């Protein structure tokens, strides 16, 4: 193994380059002890003292090489000796570097309190150095060499024996208000996290979060506690090099705040192969329930677990977690208290719901209290339980849900920001401001003459708070908005700092898309985090939605139905400025006055009387190459073949059996989503109603008016009651079979155990049902193909095959399904080779080819036919017989037209119902 540390080359003097000293160089004994007290060496944090117990196991994996626990313990012990036997306050410039971690562990092991600050924020280091006068400052110098600046040989402070760690309460603003954490806090929280995550010696976690951030620090502590490995890196998850390091180190654990998941979405995390990944953890702010469910489902398919967690710095990082098996069913909950902790709800006077109160946490990880000056470092415990400031309820299933906030703390990209501190920061720079949160942004309204330059203030706040400038909105005003009583009007601050009209064009598109989703899916609760699947979309609404979205966006990417609206909006062509409108040519106020209209498919911004620049071809590559989903194409072609063969225009049968497979494929895509079980069932029963209601209505009319059908047809019972094969009674076998399949599967999925099995074995369950269906395909034990090919029990295997095709992700799985198809289908249709060939060809395409090359007009025609296919099937039996036999093409077009018309009427009626 490569040792990333070199021996100390200089004696221990002030501000010398630091590395672990040899044992023969003792730290000089201080000549003066505070208050003439004898040296006090508290026990420190146990896991930091016991690193050597893990021997030669790999502790750290760095770009320079690996470091064993034994070697790490030696470095920690040598650095602890360098810090000396008398406790001193150590300010540590944190960073995901081995030398920073060694100093941190050395201080924890020897009982020296550590004040952790961001290593890349000089202003925070200077501010806290000035406020707390640390005895030692550990940070890299301008040349990257690590130094220990020993400012006081003995501590200038009275340090409480329990004090172990000081962390900022408000991001990285350099606020003097710190959280005081004890040795017990640090140890207890690490043990609790390691317990509920199931961390073992074989785990390897990447440091995806800053060390000075309590969440990132908890990842370090909990893994070192269990002898696991740490992949020390300061790379972003958006960098390919990070993933190269992660795979090479066989990483098992990944931690992220909501912004991390934004980055994961952008880089295509769902398509990555990470064979050693065991768990993904999320904290640092609320992740939308739809995204929780989506990532939980992705983890289920990929073999890892998602842990959604809730915590605050005042609780040494963690207070609650959501068990992974509940993430799809209860994604809106924060879960249950961590081991050793407990919650209670404190009544709130102005809260109308008696079941809602302020969430109060108790446990061994609750802080000692706050520190606002060096004098507070001598205090013991001043806090017994933690009032979180969050309003919460306890659901009947025992899970806690956060419903609001009492205080003005906000979380921006995972960092907790205290707006009052930001206001104080700007006041020190001569700017009077009001600061508040507006969604995922920090809104700042300011006055202050020349000092109040909007861009300058944005950069200042971004640098001090450690959040991206894009998450800060600044508006410079002549006068700050106030309420009638003279208090700050924060709602006005939010309103005034929101972008001008042309700047909200993106948001306008998002609102348009939300309205479109709400219209087609009848879901008024559609938001930017919603997807077609999460809103309950099914195969009947899928094609209509895809056509409307294509008109709005100009094209659709693969798997668009699983992507949230915000991603679809981002994939649209970028907004372009009018020609000649270079930076500074058009004043901001003039741009704000110009009306905006959307220029159809290219989504360019059109100003009255101005030229619209074209979107570069490179940015529209996925939009110009039109494709058609294979499932949609098969539905369109299949219904045309069915109607044409019944007239007959020609006789090419097998379309209905292909559509049975397509129905199974769509069942898996649209009904077996990552939503919790009850939401799944509601979605499934709604889908059954959308299929059964218009079918029963039409067939009942046909029974009453034609006399060709038995009343059992109107009740969709012919397949169960009629053992004959007369054609009129069996006209609607296809609809009956689908209703039977969906009803039985809905009943089965209502059983929690079966629901969990399907989620865990996404391909195995339909494969098992395919095997069961093959029993119905044959008359056992002779395996003679003697059964009627329109019976539901005979064709169920095709439905299961389509379901399995939707879940197949590997060549081996697709090959297996193709082999089953080729072996089981021959003989089903009794000497009809063309029919057999058609079904084999159609379902093979479904298994292997997700999309087909197409053209825009062809897509629209196929979309209309596919979305109306059920209704064309229902109505055509009553349409084509009314057309003279001499005009078969007229009969075909009339059948298609009536079915499309009935689709338009039935869809709207069923939505209203």
From TrEMBL:
Transmembrane region(s): 650-668, 688-710, 730-754, 761-780, 786-806, 887-910
Gene3D superfamilies linked: 3.30.300.30, ACP-like, N-terminal domain of ligase-like
PANTHER family named in the record: LONG-CHAIN-FATTY-ACID--COA LIGASE, NONRIBOSOMAL PEPTIDE SYNTHASE PES1 (EUROFUNG)-RELATED
Pfam families documented for this protein: Acyl_transf_3, AMP-binding, PP-binding
Keyword annotations of the record: Membrane, Transmembrane, Transmembrane helix
Source organism of this protein record: Streptomyces xiangluensis
Boundaries of every Carrier domain copy: 504-579
Name of the featured protein: AMP-binding protein
SUPFAM superfamilies associated with the record: Acetyl-CoA synthetase-like, ACP-like
Annotated spans, Disordered: 11-35, 600-621
Coiled-coil positions: none
Pro residues: bias regions: 19-31
Higher taxonomy: Bacteria, Bacillati, Actinomycetota, Actinomycetes, Kitasatosporales
């Amino acid at each position: 193994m490569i040792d990333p540390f070199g021996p100390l080359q200089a004696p221990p003097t002030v501000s010398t380059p630091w590395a672990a000293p040899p044992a023969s160089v003792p730290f000089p004994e201080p000549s003066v002890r505070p208050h003439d007290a004898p040296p006090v060496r508290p026990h420190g944090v146990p896991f930091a003292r016991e690193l050597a117990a893990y021997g030669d196991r790999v502790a750290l994996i760095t770009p320079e090489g690996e470091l064993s626990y034994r070697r790490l313990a030696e470095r920690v012990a040598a650095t602890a000796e360098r810090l000396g036997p008398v406790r001193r306050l150590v300010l540590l410039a944190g960073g995901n570097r081995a030398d920073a971690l060694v100093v941190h562990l050395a201080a924890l092991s020897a009982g020296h309190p550590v004040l952790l600050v961001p290593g890349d924020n000089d202003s925070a280091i200077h501010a806290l150095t000035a406020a707390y006068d640390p005895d030692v400052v550990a940070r890299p110098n301008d040349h990257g060499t690590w130094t220990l600046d020993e400012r006081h040989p003995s501590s200038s402070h009275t340090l409480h024996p329990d004090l172990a760690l000081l962390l900022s309460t408000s991001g990285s603003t350099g606020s003097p208000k710190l959280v005081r954490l004890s040795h017990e806090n640090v140890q207890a929280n690490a043990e609790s996290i390691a317990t509920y995550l199931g961390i073992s010696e074989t785990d390897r976690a990447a440091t995806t979060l800053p060390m000075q951030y309590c969440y990132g620090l908890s990842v370090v502590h909990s893994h070192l506690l269990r002898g696991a490995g740490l992949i020390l890196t300061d790379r972003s998850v958006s960098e390919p090099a990070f993933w190269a390091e992660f795979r090479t180190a066989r990483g098992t654990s990944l931690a992220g705040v909501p912004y991390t998941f934004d980055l994961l979405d952008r880089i295509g995390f769902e398509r990555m192969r990470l064979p050693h990944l065991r768990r993904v953890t999320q904290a640092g702010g609320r992740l939308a329930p739809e995204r929780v469910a989506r990532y939980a489902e992705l983890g289920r398919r990929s073999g890892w677990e998602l842990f959604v967690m809730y915590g605050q710095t005042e609780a040494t990082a963690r207070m609650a977690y959501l068990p992974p098996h509940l993430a799809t069913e209860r994604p809106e909950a924060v879960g249950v208290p961590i081991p050793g902790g407990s919650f209670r709800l404190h009544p709130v006077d102005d809260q109308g719901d008696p079941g809602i109160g302020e969430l109060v946490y108790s446990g061994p990880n609750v802080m000692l209290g706050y520190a606002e000056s060096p004098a507070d470092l001598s205090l013991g415990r001043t806090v017994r339980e933690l009032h979180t400031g969050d309003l919460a309820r306890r659901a009947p299933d025992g899970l806690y849900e956060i419903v609001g906030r009492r205080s003005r703390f906000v979380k921006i990209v995972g960092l907790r920001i205290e707006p009052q501190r930001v206001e104080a920061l700007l006041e020190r720079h001569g700017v009077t401001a009001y600061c508040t949160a507006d969604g995922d942004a920090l809104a700042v309204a300011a006055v202050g003459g020349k000092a109040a330059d909007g861009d300058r203030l944005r950069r200042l706040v971004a640098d001090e708070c450690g959040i991206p400038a894009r998450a800060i909105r600044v508006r410079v005003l002549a006068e700050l908005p106030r309420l009638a009583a003279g208090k700050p009007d924060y709602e006005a601050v939010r309103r005034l700092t929101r972008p001008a009209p042309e700047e909200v064009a993106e948001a306008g598109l998002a609102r348009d898309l939300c309205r479109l989703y709400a219209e087609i899916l009848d879901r008024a609760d559609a938001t930017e985090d919603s997807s077609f699947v999460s809103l309950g979309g099914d195969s009947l609404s899928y094609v209509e939605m895809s056509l409307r979205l294509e008109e709005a966006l100009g094209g659709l990417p693969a798997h668009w139905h699983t992507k949230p609206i915000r991603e679809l909006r981002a994939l649209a062509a970028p907004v372009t400025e009018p020609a000649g409108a270079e930076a500074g040519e058009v004043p901001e106020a003039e741009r704000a006055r110009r009306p905006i209209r959307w220029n159809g498919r290219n989504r360019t911004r059109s100003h009255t009387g101005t030229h619209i620049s074209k979107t570069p071809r490179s940015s529209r590559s996925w939009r110009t190459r039109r494709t058609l989903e294979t499932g949609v194409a098969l539905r369109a072609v299949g219904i045309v073949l069915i109607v044409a063969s019944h007239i007959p225009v020609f006789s090419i049968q097998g379309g209905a059996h292909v559509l049975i497979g397509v129905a199974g494929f769509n069942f898996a895509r649209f009904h077996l989503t990552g939503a919790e079980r009850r939401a799944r069932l509601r979605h499934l029963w709604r889908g059954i109603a959308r299929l059964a209601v218009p079918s029963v209505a039409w067939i009942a009319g046909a029974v009453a008016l034609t006399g060709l059908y038995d009343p059992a047809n109107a009740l969709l019972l012919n397949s169960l009651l009629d053992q004959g094969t007369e054609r009129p009674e069996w006209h609607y076998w296809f609809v009956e079979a689908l209703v039977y399949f969906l009803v039985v599967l809905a009943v089965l999925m209502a059983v929690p155990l079966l629901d969990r099995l399907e989620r865990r074995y996404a391909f195995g369950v339909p494969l098992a049902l395919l095997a069961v269906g093959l029993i119905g395909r044959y008359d056992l034990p002779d395996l003679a193909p003697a059964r009627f090919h329109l019976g539901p029990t005979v064709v169920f295997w095709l439905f299961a095959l389509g379901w399995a095709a939707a879940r197949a992700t590997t060549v081996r799985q697709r090959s297996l399904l193709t082999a089953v198809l080729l072996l089981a289908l021959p003989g089903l249709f009794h000497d009809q080779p063309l029919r057999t060939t058609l079904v084999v060809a159609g379902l093979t395409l479904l298994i292997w080819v997700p999309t087909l090359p197409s053209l825009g007009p062809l897509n629209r025609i196929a979309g209309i036919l596919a979305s109306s296919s059920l209704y064309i099937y229902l109505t055509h039996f009553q349409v084509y017989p009314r057309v003279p036999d001499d005009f078969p093409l007229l009969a075909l077009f009339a059948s298609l037209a009536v079915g499309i018309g009935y689709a338009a009427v039935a869809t709207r009626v069923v939505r209203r119902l």
